Each structure stands twice: as structure tokens, then as C-alpha cells.
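Lecture notes, unit on binding sites. The following record was shown on slide 14. It pairs a sequence with zinc ion.
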Amino acid sequence: MKLYCSLFGHNYEVSKKVTSHVKEYTCKCCKRQLTTNSNGDLTELTPKFKEINSILEEMYLRRTLRSQEKAYSTSIY
Ligand SMILES: [Zn+2]
């Protein structure tokens, strides 16, 4: 499997959408994981990046929830 990746390149698919800009990718063949870093480049998904992503995800979800609440209340009044 790893030989396939080194010959033909990794076969990444999005495994998790963290925010609208940050995603996590997993190679279907060798399970190597990448993520988008703060520069918008792809980098190895290390435990440190996993931690950053979970914080980002929480912030993103909270912000999304809040904007939905706002939309809801403005539709009432
Ligand atoms: Zn691979």
C-alpha cells in the first residue's frame, strides 16, 4: 500500500471539516493524515495540530450557533 503511495501519490479524501477553511485529510491507502495549517498549506496532522483543530472546531461551531440564533431572533421581531 505504501509503495503504491510513493509511486502514484497519496489518495487523500476529506475526513473531517474543521471550519470552512480548515479540513483534515486521510489517505485512503496508507491512512496518512494531513491538515490545513494557519497559512492555508497542507501539513502532517500531528497530535499538536489535532489539538489546535479541536479548539478551532469548537470556536467555529460556537460562532455558527450564535449567528443562527441571531438570524432566528431577527426573524421574530
Ligand atoms: Zn498514502
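Take-home: The longest strand covers residues 12-17.
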